[in-house]
Design brief:
Blueprint: H1 12-33, H2 39-61, H3 69-75, H4 77-86, H5 97-122, E1 131-135, H6 137-157, H7 166-193, H8 198-216, H9 222-239, H10 244-268, H11 283-298, H12 302-315, H13 319-328, H14 344-347, H15 362-370, H16 376-379, H17 388-418, H18 427-438, H19 446-467, E2 468-472, H20 491-503, H21 505-508, H22 512-524, H23 530-548
Antiparallel strand pairs: 1-2
Helix pairs in contact: 1-2, 2-3, 2-4, 2-5, 5-13, 5-17, 6-7, 6-8, 7-9, 7-19, 8-9, 10-11, 13-17, 17-18, 18-19, 20-23, 22-23
C-alpha cells in the first residue's frame, strides 16, 4: 500500500500499532487526570474523543486511502476542545451544563458526519490516470530557489518593498509566501531522497531557518508549526522514514517556546499600541530571552508552572468561544444569517482591481464585537480567533453546522481522492498538500480559510504553468478486461504491487512474471498438476501479502 498511491510502501500494521499505543496512552492519562462536573459530560467527552480518533483509525487500518486530511483535521479537536474540557478549565465554569452538553453533542455529530462522507468517497482507491501533469525537477530547481529566496525576503524585509503600493505589495507578498511554502516542501522531499547537492542543502537550511524564525518572532507559533510539519512530511515521503531525532528536538523547543510566549506577548505586544517589529540583528537576543522565559515557566513549582502553561493553552482554545456563542444565540443574540460570509466573494478579487476590497479577518472582527469579546477600541489592538464551527453556528445555528460538515466532507473527500494514484510531484498531490497544511490552523474563519486556499491555489497554478508538463504516470498499470483476483487489494494498488515486484525481483527470488512463465512451461509440458498449481498460487499470495504489510 502506498500513501496516496505513491508506490511508497507503508506498514499498515505498524501504523495501527502506533495508533493503538497512542490512544491507550492518552486514555490512561485521561482516566487519571480528568475533571468533570457531571457523569453526562464525562460520557459525552469520551464520545467526542472516539469521534475525533475514528478517522485516524480508519486511515491507519487502510479502510480509507489518500492523504490523511480528515484525520489531521479531526485531531485538531484535542487542543481546541477536548483538552480544556478534560482538564476542567476554569473558563468553562461560567457556562451551564446544558450548554456544555449541547456543544459536545454537536461536535460529536459534526465529526461523525464528516467522517462518514469522507469514508464513502475514499474507501475504494481510484484508478491511476495514464497521464498527469508532473514537475520536472531537473529543469525547475533554479526557479524553486528563486521562489524560496523571494518569499524569505518578503517575509523578512516587509516594508522595504513599499514602492509596490499597498494592493500590489500584498498580492506579491502573498504569492511569494505561498510559493516559498511549496518550494520548501519540494526541497524537503528531495533532501529525503538524497538528491540535493551540498550547496542546495546549505541554502535550504539557511533560508528555511530564517523563514521559521521570522514566522515565530510575532510570538504566534501556528505558522511555524505548519512550516515544520510541511518540512517533516516532505522529508518523510522522500526518505520513507520518520526523522524521530529531529522531531523530538523540534517538539521540545516548541514546547519551551509555547510555555514562555505569554510573558513575551505581555512584554512586547502592548508597546506603541501594537506589535513591535524586530530587525534580524535582534533575533538572537529575542529568542534567547524567549527560551529563558519558557525554561523559567517550566521550572517553576509544579502548581504555579502548570497553571501558567495551562492558562496560555486555554486562551488559545476554541471551546469557551463555542460555548458562549451557543449559550447566547439565539436567545440573547440573534443569528447573524451569513453576515460573516457575504464578503468572501469580494476577497477573491485582487486589491489592485477592487480598491474597496475588505480584509480576510473581517469575520473575526464581526464575531468578536457581536459576542462582546472585544470593544471597538480593542479591535485595533488585538484579535480573537474563531474557527469554522463557531462561525457556522453563529450564522445559522444547527443548520449551519450541518451544512459545514457536508461541505467540508465533500471537499476534503474530493481532494483526498485526487491524491490517490498520482506521483508526489504532480499538481494533484501538491494541491492536496496545500489543503492538508491548511488544516493545522484551527482558529480561522471561512474568509481566512477560503482566501488562503485561493492564493495558494493560484500560486500552484502558476507553478504548474511554469514547471510542469504532461507526462506518463509511473503508477499507471494497464489492467486486463477480465476480472482478476486482487487478494484484497484495489485495482490501482494491485497494479502498484505488480510494478514493485517487477522492479525488485531479487528481493523475493521470483516475481509475478517468473511465476507466469513457469505456469506456461508447466502447461506446455503437461505437468500443471494440483501440487504445482497450489505451490505457484501460494507464492503469488505471499508476494502480495509481503508488500501489503
Amino acid at each position: 500500500m502506498g500513501i496516496g498511491g505513491l508506490g511508497i510502501p507503508v506498514n499498515r500494521r505498524k501504523l495501527l500499532l502506533w495508533f493503538q499505543l497512542g490512544t491507550a496512552g492518552y486514555l490512561a492519562y485521561f482516566y487519571f487526570t480528568a475533571q468533570f462536573r457531571t457523569l453526562e459530560i464525562l460520557l459525552l467527552t469520551v464520545g467526542l474523543i472516539f469521534a475525533a480518533l475514528l478517522p485516524s483509525y480508519l486511515w491507519c487500518k487502510g479502510k480509507v486511502h489518500g492523504l490523511p486530511i480528515i484525520p489531521v483535521f479531526a485531531l485538531s479537536t484535542f487542543p481546541a476542545y477536548i483538552l480544556p474540557i478534560h482538564r476542567g478549565s476554569e473558563l468553562l465554569d461560567q457556562f451551564s451544563k446544558e450548554t456544555e452538553a449541547k456543544a459536545l453533542l454537536c461536535l460529536i455529530g459534526f465529526f461523525l458526519a464528516i467522517t462518514l462522507i469522507w469514508q464513502q468517497m475514499c474507501n475504494n482507491p481510484r484508478k491511476a490516470p495514464a497521464i498527469c501533469r508532473m514537475m520536472d525537477l531537473q529543469g525547475s530547481t533554479w526557479l524553486l530557489v528563486v521562489f524560496l529566496i523571494s518569499g524569505t525576503l518578503f517575509q523578512l524585509a516587509g516594508l522595504i518593498f513599499y514602492q509596490f503600493g499597498g494592493g500590489l505589495f500584498s498580492l506579491v507578498r502573498g504569492y511569494a509566501g505561498n510559493a516559498a511554502m511549496l518550494a520548501t516542501f519540494i526541497f524537503a522531499y528531495r533532501l529525503g531522497m538524497g538528491t540535493l547537492t551540498p550547496a542546495l542543502k546549505i541554502l535550504l537550511f539557511g533560508v528555511v531557518g530564517l523563514l521559521i524564525f521570522s514566522d515565530a518572532i510575532s510570538f504566534i507559533l501556528a505558522t511555524t508549526l505548519v512550516r515544520l510539519v510541511v518540512i517533516g512530511a516532505g522529508y518523510t515521503l522522500g526518505s520513507q522514514k520518520i526523522p524521530w531525532k529531529s522531531a523530538v528536538v523540534a517538539i521540545s523547543l516548541i514546547s519551551v517556546l509555547h510555555a514562555g510566549k505569554a510573558e513575551m506577548r505581555e512584554k512586547y505586544w502592548n508597546q506603541d499600541g501594537g506589535n513591535r517589529a524586530f530587525s534580524i540583528v535582534e533575533y538572537p537576543l529575542i529568542f534567547g530571552e524567549w527560551f529563558a522565559s519558557g525554561v523559567k515557566v517550566l521550572g517553576q513549582k509544579k502548581g504555579e508552572g502548570e497553571r501558567d502553561v495551562q492558562s496560555a493553552a486555554e486562551r488559545g482554545a476554541m471551546v469557551q468561544i463555542l460555548f458562549r456563542i451557543m449559550e447566547w444565540s439565539p436567545s440573547r443574540k440573534p443569528f447573524l444569517e451569513g453576515e460573516t460570509y457575504k464578503e468572501i466573494p469580494a476577497l477573491l478579487v485582487p486589491r489592485i482591481l477592487y480598491k474597496e476590497k475588505g480584509i480576510a479577518h473581517i469575520g473575526n472582527w464581526i464575531l468578536a464585537y457581536y459576542y462582546e469579546f472585544l470593544t471597538l477600541e480593542g479591535l485595533s489592538k488585538t484579535s480573537v480567533g474563531f474557527d469554522l464551527l463557531s462561525e457556522s453556528y453563529a450564522n445559522y445555528g444547527y443548520i449551519g453546522m450541518g451544512f459545514l460538515a457536508i461541505i467540508l466532507g465533500l471537499f476534503y473527500g474530493w481532494v483526498c481522492r485526487q491524491s490517490i494514484g498520482v506521483p508526489l510531484l504532480s499538481l494533484r498531490f501538491l494541491f492536496a498538500v496545500l489543503v492538508l497544511s491548511g488544516t493545522f490552523s484551527s482558529n480561522n474563519t471561512m474568509g481566512v480559510f477560503v482566501t488562503t486556499l485561493w492564493q495558494s491555489s493560484m500560486v500552484l497554478l502558476t507553478l504548474g504553468i511554469l514547471l510542469t508538463k504532461q507526462m506518463p504516470n509511473p503508477l499507471y498499470v494497464k489492467t486486463s478486461s477480465a476480472p482478476a483476483k486482487d487478494h484484497g487489494l484495489g485495482a490501482s494498488e494491485r497494479g502498484q504491487v505488480e510494478a514493485l515486484l517487477r522492479s525488485k525481483p531479487r528481493r523475493l527470488g521470483r516475481n509475478f512474471e517468473g511465476l507466469k512463465a513457469k505456469r506456461r512451461r508447466c502447461a506446455m509440458n503437461g505437468r500443471r498438476g494440483l501440487f504445482t498449481e497450489k505451490k505457484i498460487k501460494i507464492h503469488e499470495n505471499l508476494c502480495a501479502v509481503w508488500l501489503w504489510f
